[in-house]
Amino acid sequence: MRFGVTCTCVDCGHTFATKEHVYLCPQCGDPSPPIRGVLYLRYPKLPEDLEMHEFFASEWLELLPVLKADSFPAMRVGRTPLYRRVVDGREVWLKDDSQNPTWSYKDRASVVVSAHARECGAKTIVAASTGNAGSSIAGICAAQGQRAVVIVPEAAPEAKLLQAMAYGAKVIRVKGDYDAAFELSLRATEAFGWYNRNTAYNPVTIEGKKTAAFEIAQMHPRVDRVFIPAGDGVIAAGVWKGFIELFENGLTRNIPQIVLVQATGSANLVRNLTTDNPTFPAAHTLADSIQVTVPRNLGMIRYLAEQYDHDAIVVSDDEIVDAERHLARTQGILVEPAAAAAWAGWRKSRPAEGLVDIVLLTGSGLKDLAPLRETLHAPAPIAPELSALRTAMGDNK
Ligand SMILES: *Cc1c(COP(=O)(O)O)cnc(C)c1O
Q: Using a 6 Å cutoff on CB, does residue 106 contact ligand 1?
């Protein structure tokens, strides 16, 4: 960890300075779900006279747990497009993070994890994952010459699994669910000295997920709402933290409202935002990247929600499928269902004149063809003749 970082436990408040890499709070940490003792990292204040454009032009190392820019792989992660669109008379900005090297937002965490692991001298990175985190760390490790071991539950979606294998990761499928994969990855970390990328468990994953906030703020010194699809709540916490740090350093005018968007059948983050007795009914949604029964980062989301403005929207699977098609057809951006959930959430939100709304599009639609197959069918072939084409086109000539 870089010199000067202090860690605060989001659950017990224990605060300490460290130069060593730590996973959870040394006083109350417990990795069983939802994780207890997730750490909130704080950095020394940036120079008073630093301007946003100077900060933006840098590698952001002052606010990341990475010492040297050389520790990153030579690969463009983040710095993704932010498109202005007007939809149904409302202005909205789309942050297209499907355009990352492995086509998901997870690359932002993986690249910082990979650089940090390199600075720690670790050669093998292990991750428990149901999909995108695994394929992402596999791709980033391939670029960096590190070994990735990806432990997945039996039912992990095939496309993401094959993607991880294509990058040369060692993919281990365990008989069991995500919890079993998570638990085994922790034991391997201890037994073999591997570096662990598990989401929320390693605070560096949250740090990596901040960087979209830096990019958005560079374009908009004032943002009103950010719509974020949430499963474990690491993307949401990361983006939130990024905006908080910019504001605390005087680089932006406000901290935007964070709008957590979850699927109706997988809403255990928003259900338990404030309650003293959290409950975790089994999650079911076709948006597999946000299907999470026990959100790992619940503690930090609650910690942030206590202090800062937020909102929550739940969307049904039908609304997600509809949003995926709508975004593709009207904006030319094909995203996976989890990302489409954010779009569905924005469409459902209260319209507000003059607000700067950002929607985070977190993954590519080519990662998961199943929902498309349900509604789209390859057309029957026709004879290569104008008359047949005329019939096929019907009234749409
Ligand atoms: C992981 C993921 C999410 C949700 O992120 P959490 O940190 O689990 O809340 C959303 N969309 C995509 C595409 C993802 O891969």
A: yes
